Amino acid sequence: MRLHRLDITAFGPFGGAQQVDFGELSAAGLFLLHGPTGAGKTSILDAVCYALYGSVPGARQGGSLRSDHAAPGTRTEVTLELTVAGRRLELTRQPPWERPKKRGEGTTLDKAQSWLREYDSSAGAWKDLSRSHQEIGEEITQLLGMSREQFCQVVLLPQGDFARFLRADAEARGKLLGRLFDTHRFAEVEKRLADRRRAAEAEVRDGDAELLADAHRMQQAAGDAMELPGLAPGEPGLAEAIMGAAAVARSTARERLTIAHCARAAAESAQVAADGALADVREVARLQRRFAEARERARLLEERAETHRTDRARMERARKAEVVAPALELREAAEDEHGHAAKDEARARALLPDAFTDAGAGGLAAAARRAAEELGGLESARRAEQRLAQLVAERTGLDRQERADEDVLHDAENWLGGWEATRAGLHARIESAQEAATRAEQLAVQREPAQNRLRAARQRDALARDTDETQTHVLASRERATEAKAHWLDLKEQRLNGIAAELAAKLSDGEPCAVCGATEHPAPARKVAGHVDRETEERALAAYQRADERRAEDERRLGLVREALAAATAEAGDTPTAQLAEQAEELERGYEEARRGASGLHSAHEELRRAEQERERRSAAQQEAALRTASRVARRDTLDSERAALEEELAQARGGAASVAVRAGQLERQVALLTDTAEAARAAEDTAQRLKDADARLADAAYRAGFDTPRAAAEALLDDTAHRELQRRLDAWQSEEAAVRAALAEPDTVAAAQQPPADLAGAERTASAAARRLREAASARDAAESRCRELDRLSARSATAVRRLAPLRAAHDRVARLATLTAGTSADNERKMRLESYVLAARLEQVAAAATARLLRMSSGRYTLVHSDDRAGRGRSGLGLHVVDAWTGRERDTATLSGGETFFASLALALGLADVVTDEAGGVRLDTLFIDEGFGSLDEQTLDEVLDVLDSLRERDRSVGIVSHVPDLRRRIHAQLEVEKGRSGSVVRQRGGG
Questions:
Q1: Alpha-carbon distance 222 to 214, whole Å?
Q2: Which residues, including other chains, have CB under 8 Å from residue 827's CB and lie 6 or more apart?
Q3: Percent of the chain with pLDDT over 90
Q4: What is the per-residue pLDDT for 658?
């Protein structure tokens, strides 16, 4: 990588645009970057780092990159042109910044931007590659082969960091080397192995926990026949101990099962004998109870013998009466029928007139026929009566229409009489509204210009007042700005007079003076009373700048007000505002009055159109009413003649009734009553004859059945319920008598009755005790079988778990050995060195070898850097760094080097580290290096030797930039880049290049 050009604008202490030609400086091979403290030497290196990676070195991150000296409209920008991997690139970066708004006041935030271009030698022009921050960052990192931290350590060599690296302990040294060589992947390997070890250990421990849980279940199933081992999950030998204890428990459980089988067989035999004895006793007891019950039942039958004979006699009489039952039922039905017919006849005769009270059925039927004939003769009279009602209704409707037509004719004559006057008034309204509309149009043309002149006049008066006030503000702000400037210039002059005391306050013994370069300061200037420092001067300058900005703003506002006043005066003229307002108000009143008059034009037209339509409608209605009146006269005469004829006919048909319909209703009711009464009389006569016949048949049937009277036969009859109850008692007596005889005749029952009473309770107690002993034996055997099954199941599951855990345990042992080995805690790792430390130790050996090649030249062959893997105290080994002194032949710690020796040793270490990191990054060539400070601690001879070593880097076509305050280097190094600071920001001066 070779740098060619660096452009800086508004970056850090540089307020304007600065350019550094690295191509010219690199031609000399060795160049010096110097300037006073705070001028911005390190900022140039920050700009290089920012252009490449988009950020500055870690120690200076977090602050603003924009220069406080930059103009508000100047954007911060860094452009770097370089060659890397044979490609010529140009990087441009702009950080985010708050710029002034293009319109209005305030600021707006612009986002950060980046550009990457490549020079095309065939086309002789630059071509754009990317404007993406991420793509540019990935491209540069890939081309350089190193991160920002590695670049800052390898290209921008900070000597203070390497001096601390020389004296650091192994842990701090490992952190720096880890960042440079990116060995976190080896730390990840350590972490991954440790995680795998913990995971495998957790799996083994979980498996052992499950195995131990099954062992507890086996112990619970086996009772007191199993003892658990006193081992925790994860401890060796747990599985073997559990499996051994399980085998003992299974053997003991099987022995107990055999004993339980024998006990159950003996209990079964005893229960069978006890059950047989109990069955025999129960049978004897049953037969004895049966004999006693039969004797008791026989006694009860003897007591109920008389009742049984009475029931049997009653059943015989009931069977005889059943022959008379049909005649009795027939007589009852005839009597009921005759009673109903007599009642119906009485009700019907009660509704007839007195003239028909004694009439028979034939007389009533003849009277009904005569009334029906008279009813048929009234049908034509009924139709005539309906027609008469229609005539009356039509005559009434004609009278109502006549009255309505008279009203229509009267209204039409009154309205049409005033039509001419109404039409003339509407025409006059239309002409007046048209004249008002014309006047409103004329006034509207004059109205808008008058309003515009009035508004311009009012604005003219307001701007005139604003002009006076603004002019007063301008005079006051000019006076304040003049006073602030005078005050600032006075303070500036006072500070310049006492600047020597301010510079002397920063002097330290042994440090060069920023003005003369001397390291001794015998008589530094002192501050006097009332001394003006830089902060006081800057406050005065800021106050002057604010006052001047307010003055400029007031003057700009005054110019705007005057321009607006001139425009308003040109439009309004010199006429007073009150006069213009009066004219505009008069025009507005006239316009409103004309507009109100014109608004009635449309309504007048509409009203005239509606009036003409009403005239036409009323004329047509008048003609139609006259025609209807003429036609009604003929229809009224026809209706009156027809009505007279119908009334004469109806008077004859009604007789004494109010109407034909009333007379017809009377005849209909009379016919219905006579017909119903005749039918009821005939039915009563028929039922009386049937009752007489039923009485004769009943008397004959009772006599034949052996009863003296029909009543006696009726009393002997039984209903269904009584008959079934009597038959049931007779059947029950016969069944009970047969059962008692059979029971008393059984030989077994008689033999059992002759024996002593059976002891059933004793036999049941004996059988119950035998059954209880059998249940207890069966329960004991079932428990023993269940225990054996559970132990077999849990033992099989435990054996499966042991087989499953075997490979997990082997994997855990293997991973644990690797994890402890890489972590440095294994007994096999004699030096207790971690894997990452082992890799870094190899890199440190390479760095020490590369640094020794230059350290020998810088120290005239005295010192050599060597790597040591000895342990430091109780810590781990691997990252020790010692120096071998050729004068004494002793190896000692780097912390024993003097200040100058520490500098050139750290410089050699930095250059060696740069070579190793470059090779590690893929061999990317680093043609430009920077070394920051430290040369002031060297004597003249050592300084020559160090510069010779740095100058020898040109043999590899490298250029080295030295950042230093040492005055002697300005004489020794001709190519220089000087940074000068000033009030408006720092500037760069370049001279002495190739």
A1: 12
A2: none
A3: 4
A4: 62
Among 15-29, 337-351, 385-399, 587-601, the range of highest mean pLDDT: 15-29
Q: Which residues pair with 885 in a beta bridge?
A: 863, 890
pLDDT of residue 19: 92
Beta-carbon count within 10 A of 656 CB: 6
More confident residue, 876 or 91: 91
Q: What is the mean pLDDT of residues 139-167?
A: 70
Tokens 């790597």, residue located: 867
The string of pLDDT tens digits covering residues 720-746 is: 788 788 788 888 888 877 888 887 777
Count Cβ atoms within 10 A of the Cβ of residue 159 and give its class: 0-12 exposed, 13-18 middle, 19 or more buried.
buried
Residue count of the chain: 994
Give the CA radius of gyration of the chain: 70
Residue pair 716/321 in contact (Cβ under 8 Å)? The answer is yes
CA contacts within 13 A on the Cβ side of 383: 4
The model scores a pTM over 0.85: no
Cα 913 from Cα 853, distance rounded (Å): 12
Residue that the structure tokens 């025409």 belong to = 427
**Cβ 607 vs Cβ 426: under 8 Å:** yes
Q: Concatenated DSSP letters for 668-703?
A: HHHHHHHHHHHHHHHHHHHHHHHHHHHHHHHHHHHH
Beta sheet of 880-885, edge-to-edge order: 863-868, 880-885, 890-893
Helix (H, G, I), strand (E, B) or coil at 219: helix
Q: How does residue 247 score in pLDDT terms, banded at 50, 70 and 90?
A: confident
Average pLDDT value for residue range 872-881 = 59
How many Å apart are CA 443 and CA 590, to the nearest integer? 7
| 242 within 8 A of 227, measured Cβ to Cβ | no
**Cβ 394 vs Cβ 402: under 8 Å:** no
Q: What is the DSSP string of 378-389?
A: THHHHHHHHHHH
E strands in 751-857: none
pLDDT over 90 (residue 79): yes
Q: Where does the pLDDT of residue 116 fall: very low under 50, low under 70, confident under 90, or very high at 90 and above?
A: very high
Residue pair 80/104 in contact by the 8 Å Cβ criterion: no
Tokens (6 digits) for 52: 């490449």
Q: What's the rounded Cα separation, in Å, for the pair 689 and 695?
A: 11
Distance (Å, whole) CA 412 – CA 432: 30
What is the per-residue pLDDT for 80?
93
State the virtual CA torsion across 568, 573, 575, 577 in degrees, nearest 10: -10
Helices 835-858 and 940-952: angle between axes, nearest 10 degrees = 110
What burial class does residue 413 get, using C-beta atoms within 10 Å of its C-beta: 0-12 exposed, 13-18 middle, 19+ buried?
exposed
Supply the DSSP string of 58-121, one letter for each residue: GGGTTS--B-TTS-TTPPPEEEEEEEETTEEEEEEEE--EEEEPSSSSSEEEEPPEEEEEEEET
Torsion angle, alpha carbons of 933, 939, 942, 945, to 10: 70
Do 786 and 209 touch, CB atoms closer than 8 A? no
With 0-12 CB in 10 A as exposed, 13-18 as middle and 19+ as buried, what is 83?
Answer: middle
CA distance 220 to 786: 12
Identify the band that residue 76 occupies on the pLDDT scale cut at 50, 70 and 90: very high
Asked if 568 and 459 count as a contact pair (C-beta separation under 8 A), the reply is: yes
> pLDDT band at 91, cuts 50/70/90?
very high
pLDDT > 90? residue 647: no
pLDDT at position 159 over 60: no
Tokens representing 136 are 């540019």
Supply 929's token pair.
């290096």
Of 129-133, 315-319, 646-650, which one has max mean pLDDT? 129-133
- CA–CA separation, 591 and 328 (whole Å): 124
